Structure formats: structure tokens, C-alpha cells
């Protein structure tokens, strides 16, 4: 609970920084200053500034905890069992650069490599999702006060907003599938094949989901599944900071995070580590979750 309180405070300050960057007269804070692994993997001054704000604030309060953030991560550094903040300062950087308001600050906290506290805040809509292990998943809506602070716009609403729709299997679902920034080799081919099979009509061997969305923020996608306006979210290529915060929000709302790969040895694994990088998030009717995952794996 104490970590969650710290998340509330720092998320509001980070949200103000993002809004100020968006409203600033110069566009340097929203223009990407660099690319990472390829020209579709963007980073801005604001990603770096927000990560610094978050890490400095959290580590000054909790100096013995570790910090893993998207912008300062040193490739190859393993996640260990220590209490660790796992943070994406701007999840949806491509949206941010394009002014598309599906962007979030994703604050996760892991103990023994499991997500136990999560907060996901979209400063453009003011929607904030949060959860602690065993404490349920919640949502509230904030609005900026104009002097750098935020106030509550609505009463907080307990998730689930409604019962999950009574689906089992892919028929009639709304699915989020991301392009991600990795557009090459077998990873890209898997994404294309999955997209193709999900959307195709049944007579042509497809699954005939209702529709698919590519929204651009893994953390918000997980919250969308938790809330039930997306039924399934699949991605290969995410990092722990993309999913740590949303993971606990989803599971506290009754959803599951399964392996995004079909089991290669025939043994189903329903527990995957937060560093796994290939995920399938589902919140179906109780009893329908595993069936849905298995049907997805079949594709
Ligand atoms: C990305 C977003 C995107 C997902 C990518 C992530 P970033 O995070 O979550 O939706 O497809 O895999 O890397 O780079 O905007 O923080």
C-alpha cells in the first residue's frame, strides 16, 4: 500500500510533465531524438526526463530497492528476487510522438520476480488503473487542476466494471495484437500469420474474431482486457517494463497471463515469468479462459 501511495504521487507528477511537453510551444520534447534498435523504435527527451523523475523519486524513498526502467536498462541485466521497480515512463512512445492519446505511465513493482503492485496512468484521458496483490484492481479518473496537480473527476470504480463477457474461445471476441518495433524475421512472420488467421472467415480456416486492434500501449492493453473492452491481447516482443504494471491489474481483475507461444513440448504452462516476452492476456468467463488460450495457441 505504501508503494502504491508513492506510485500515485509520482504518476501525477509524471503525467503533468507529459502534458506540459505536449503543450509546449517548441515540439522538441515530443519529437523523437533517437531511435533504438531500428527506425520504428523511438525515444524522446520526455521519455528520458520522466524516467529520471520516477527513478529519483522512488529510489530516494526506497534506496535499497532496485530499479529497471526502459530508458536506462543495460541489456543483459537479469531481474533477480530483490524488490524491484519496473517502469516504462512512456508506454506508447510512438503514439506520444504522433499525438495519438493512447499513452501511459506504467509503474510496476515486483517481489521475487512477480508483479505485486501496478499503476497505469494515461494523462491525456486522466484514467488511472491500479492494483496490489490481494487488494483488487481499481480505476479512477483524474483531471488536471491547471497548477500542476490533479483532482479526482469521478468516484473510483471497482473493477471489473461489469462481469466479463461469457465467451470461451475466439468467436466473437475483440483482440489486441501489436506490431511492436521488431519487424523482421520469424517474429514478424508470426505476427503476420496470427493476424491473418484471426481475421479470416471461418470457411477459409480463420477464427473469425469480431475485430482486432493495434492500439500501441502494452500496459493500457492489459488494462483494457482487465476492464473487458478488449477480450484478448497477444504480443511477442514486449519487455518486463511493458507488462509488469498491467500484469497485476489484469490478474487482480480475474484475468490470466498465459504463454504467447503454443507449448512446444505439449505441456501447457500457465505460469510464465514477467521477463518471458511473449504473452497472451485473457479475461473470459470463468472456465473459458484456458479454452480461449488453447484455441489461440491452435492458431
Ligand atoms: C511499446 C508499446 C507497444 C508494444 C511494444 C512496446 P514503448 O512500448 O507498448 O504497444 O507493441 O512492444 O515496446 O516502446 O512505447 O514504451
TrEMBL record:
Family statement drawn from the similarity comment of this UniProt entry: Belongs to the inositol monophosphatase superfamily.
Catalytic activity: a myo-inositol phosphate + H2O = myo-inositol + phosphate
Coiled coil: none
Pathway the protein contributes to: Polyol metabolism; myo-inositol biosynthesis; myo-inositol from D-glucose 6-phosphate: step 2/2
Signal peptide: none
Keywords tagged on the record: Hydrolase, Magnesium, Metal-binding
Classification via PROSITE patterns: IMP_1 (PS00629), IMP_2 (PS00630)
Native organism taxonomy: Eukaryota, Fungi, Dikarya, Ascomycota, Pezizomycotina
Name of the protein: Inositol-1-monophosphatase
Amino acid at each position: 500500500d505504501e508503494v502504491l501511495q508513492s506510485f500515485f504521487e509520482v504518476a501525477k507528477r509524471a503525467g503533468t510533465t507529459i502534458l506540459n511537453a505536449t503543450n509546449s510551444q517548441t515540439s522538441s520534447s515530443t519529437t523523437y531524438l533517437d531511435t533504438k534498435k531500428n527506425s520504428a523504435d523511438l525515444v524522446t527527451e520526455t521519455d528520458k526526463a520522466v524516467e529520471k523523475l520516477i527513478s529519483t523519486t522512488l529510489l530516494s524513498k526506497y534506496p535499497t530497492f532496485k530499479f529497471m526502467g526502459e530508458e536506462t536498462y543495460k541489456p543483459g541485466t537479469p531481474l533477480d528476487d530483490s524488490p524491484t521497480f519496473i517502469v516504462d515512463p512512456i508506454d506508447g512512445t510512438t503514439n506520444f510522438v504522433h499525438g495519438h492519446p493512447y499513452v501511459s505511465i506504467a509503474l510496476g513493482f515486483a517481489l521475487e520476480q512477480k508483479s505485486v503492485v501496478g499503476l497505469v496512468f494515461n494523462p491525456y484521458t486522466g484514467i488511472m488503473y491500479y492494483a496490489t496483490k490481494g487488494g483488487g484492481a481499481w480505476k479512477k479518473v483524474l483531471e488536471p487542476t491547471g497548477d500542476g496537480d490533479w483532482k479526482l473527476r469521478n468516484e473510483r470504480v471497482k473493477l471489473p466494471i461489469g462481469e466479463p463477457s461469457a465467451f470461451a474461445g475466439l468467436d466473437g471476441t475483440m483482440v489486441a495484437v501489436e506490431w511492436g518495433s521488431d519487424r523482421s524475421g520469424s517474429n514478424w512472420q508470426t505476427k503476420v500469420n496470427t493476424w491473418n488467421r484471426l481475421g479470416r472467415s471461418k470457411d477459409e480456416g480463420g477464427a473469425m474474431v469480431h475485430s482486432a486492434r493495434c492500439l500501441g500501449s502494452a500496459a493500457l492493453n492489459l488494462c483494457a482486457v482487465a476492464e473487458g473492452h478488449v477480450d484478448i491481447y497477444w504480443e511477442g516482443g514486449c519487455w518486463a517494463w511493458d507488462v509488469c504494471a498491467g500484469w497485476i491489474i489484469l490478474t487482480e481483475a480475474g484475468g490470466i497471463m498465459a504463454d504467447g507461444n503454443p507449448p512446444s513440448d505439449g505441456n501447457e504452462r500457465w505460469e510464465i515469468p514477467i521477463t518471458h516476452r511473449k504473452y497472451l492476456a485473457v479475461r473470459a468467463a470463468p472456465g473459458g479462459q484456458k479454452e480461449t488460450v488453447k484455441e489461440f495457441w491452435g492458431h
